[in-house]
Amino acid sequence: MITMAPNMSDTSSSSSPRVDGRTPDQLRPVRFQNHIAPHATGSTLIEWGETRVICGVTVEESVPRWMKEQNVTGGWITAEYSMLPYSTLQRKQRDISKGKIDGRSQEIQRLIGRSIRAAVDLEKLGARTIWIDCDVLQADGGTRTAAITGAYVALALAMQKLLTEGKLKVNPLLNPVAAVSVGVVHGQLLLDLCYTEDVGAQVDMNIVMTSKGEFIEVQGSGEEATFTQEQLTEMICLGKKGVRGLLESQAAALGVVVTR
Q: Rounded to whole angstroms, how far apart are CA atoms 120 and 249?
């Protein structure tokens, strides 16, 4: 299934066009191709502009040892993230060749895990571990936000399969989760930064939210710059608008009717 994100542009937005012709508050096109990995319990290829990430979910019918040792009930969700060597203009060395995962990848996979755990009732999941693997095929900015947004779709497909197979009695999903970037580039507030915008941003922020409008994580920093409280408020509002569009695309990819 392939779906296109709704146009987030607003006629009130007035500024020079971006490198790809978008208005400041417009998402890049978002498409999902589900069941891309037939051996995964659930999977999707999210194509977000020129960024492409395969998100696959597999299920292990056991929990980590630390949960058993600490008598923690329910299940667990963990994530792994990697950029394939050919995903960038210059070949990216595989982590295995360095003998350890790099700091950026480790940070992102922890963020994916935290984000997706917020979408699930771990008690209803039962004593099983959900593995979410996010592999970047092509990077043009926003790989972590694409991984989170795609991971939720892959997870929802996996949960539906477990329900169909009778391995789950109730759906453990709580609320959909999506993520988007915002930033200040050349003094202008922009939604969903592509690579050239990201590297030139004075302020860069990633916002992860649920469909209830609740924040899971807000990651923001000034790149050799500062930002005001007013700019922070504007970035959060713009991020919320972007997340709403992404949630609609997720729902369409999953065949869910969104009611307002």
A: 20
CATH code, 77: 3.30.230.70
Q: Which long-range contacts (CB under 8 A, 24 or more apart) does 72-75 make?
A: 73/123, 73/127, 74/122, 74/123, 74/124, 74/125, 74/126, 74/127, 75/122, 75/123, 75/125, 75/126, 75/127, 75/128, 75/129, 75/130, 75/172
Domain encompassing residue 166: 30-254
Q: How far apart are CA 233 and CA 236, in angstroms?
A: 5
What digits encode the pLDDT tens for the residues 155-178?
Answer: 999 999 999 999 999 999 999 999
Q: How far apart are CA 248 and CA 137, in angstroms?
A: 24
Instruction: Compute CA distances 147 → 14, 24, 187, whole Å.
Output: 31, 22, 28
Report how far residue 40's alpha carbon sits from residue 43's, in angstroms, rounded to the nearest whole number.
Answer: 6
Domain count, the chain: 1
What is the amino acid identity at position 77?
I
Neighbouring-strand partners of residue 80: 133
CA–CA gap between residue 55 and residue 145 (Å, rounded): 12
Q: pTM of the full predicted structure?
A: 0.89
In a domain? residue 12: no
Burial 37-74 (b: 16+ CB within 10 A, else e): beebbbbbbbbbbebbbbbbbbbeeebeeebeeeeeeb
More confident site: 232 or 92: 232
Question: Token digits for 36?
Answer: 């891309």
